[in-house]
Design goal:
The chain has eleven helices and 14 strands. With 368 residues, the protein is of the alpha/beta class. Helix 8 (248-266) packs parallel to helix 11 (353-367).
């Protein structure tokens, strides 16, 4: 029986960084500052410089990042926030938790990114912000989206949970709008060993608000100037991320190479097409995703050969019971179509060429 492949090879990554990771963790254990220790500040400074913004705020998860961004803008009851229904639930979940209403705009059928041309028709006097999702590791058309936001006086929060390190016309994901919000979930392009996330902005006032919100709204100890939450990034997780930064540029290059090779190998396979990458952008392939028909049978055949796969995502948010009543006027046929077709294949910087060949051969064989 063929040995199963990992979907995302975190063990190989750990083996390559074992010494750096242990040294960083040991330093935290020695100084004992487990909450907002010096590693958090170091990480924030390095990530802000990497993204090209003035401020990075480390938070407890990508979900907290989105929620804190909304709270910093005082978005709440009576407000509407436009986003895409083809995303993980946290995108809409945080809008509802903030007290606002998500309004859904359909995606482009070849990129699965929000279709900016459809946004303006859904703006109302209650609209306060736009939340594009940088899905699979590629940024949406942020210049066009920012132009729409500017015409209507709206904030833009990039949900960059899958795209840390990606470029859009030479600029980094996370630094393209009012707020950028990313996740450090273990399987992300830059992942920690638990939950973690970060916010990015050039706005000094918003950055200060976010720093207060993440510590229960405190401007100083026991001085609660605003409503907040417990949303801090753990020092131990910051230590892991600092160790992983040592080879992050190499990992991004590998993701680009592996993604390009997947595209070349699959180009000649009937019945499968890869997600498109637009000119002027790259993709860090947080997930390498293709479109297929007969997905359930295909997944079963791949699994029998030790090839893992995943579906990101099987049902758009406007069809989920929790969010179906939020936007009854939603018309998103492309989101519903791609939800039936998308299939994510094994992807990580440590995926070997022979392993990739095995994935492609199994996929091609199952589609015959």
């Amino acid at each position: 029986m063929t040995a199963p492949l990992p979907f995302s090879d975190l063990k190989a990554q750990y083996a390559a960084l074992r010494e750096q990771i242990h040294a960083r963790i040991d330093r935290v254990l020695e100084h004992g500052q487990y909450i907002l220790g010096p590693e958090v500040q170091e990480l924030e400074q390095r990530l802000a410089a990497y993204v090209g913004v003035r401020h990075c705020i480390g938070v407890a998860s990508g979900t907290e990042a989105l929620l804190i961004a909304l709270m910093s803008l005082d978005i709440g009851r009576g407000d509407e926030v436009i986003t895409t229904p083809f995303s993980f639930a946290a995108t809409a979940e945080t809008i509802v938790l903030a007290g606002a209403t998500p309004v859904f705009v359909d995606v482009e059928p070849d990129t699965c990114l929000i279709d900016v041309a459809r946004i303006e028709a859904r703006i109302t006097p209650r609209t306060r912000a736009l939340v594009p999702v940088s899905l699979y590791g590629q940024v949406a058309d942020m210049d066009a989206l920012n132009a729409v936001a500017a015409r209507h006086g709206l904030a833009v929060i990039e949900d960059a949970a899958q795209s840390f390190g990606a470029r859009y016309h030479g600029r980094r994901s996370g630094g393209l709008s009012t707020w950028g919000a990313t996740s450090f979930f273990p399987s992300k392009p830059l992942g920690c060993y638990g939950d973690g996330g970060a916010l990015f902005t050039d706005d000094d006032a918003l950055a200060q608000a976010a720093r207060e919100i993440r510590v229960h709204g405190q401007s100083a100890r026991y001085q609660h100037t605003r409503i907040g939450l417990g949303g801090r990034l753990d020092t131990l997780q910051a230590a892991v991320l600092l160790a992983k930064l040592e080879r992050f540029d190499w990992e991004l290059q590998r993701r680009h190479e592996i993604g390009a090779r997947y595209g070349q190998l699959l180009a000649g396979v009937p019945g499968v097409r890869s997600v498109s990458v637009r000119e002027g952008r790259d993709c860090v392939w947080g997930q390498y995703t293709v479109f297929v028909d007969g997905r359930a049978d295909l997944q079963a055949q791949l699994s029998a050969q030790g090839i893992p796969s995943a579906v990101h995502y099987p049902k758009p948010l406007h069809r989920q019971p929790a969010y179906a009543a939020c936007d009854p006027a939603c018309h998103c046929p492309h989101s519903e179509q791609v939800a039936q077709q998308v299939l994510s294949l094994p992807m990580s910087a440590d995926l070997q060429l022979a392993e990739q060949d095995r994935v492609v051969a199994a996929l091609a064989g199952a589609l015959r």
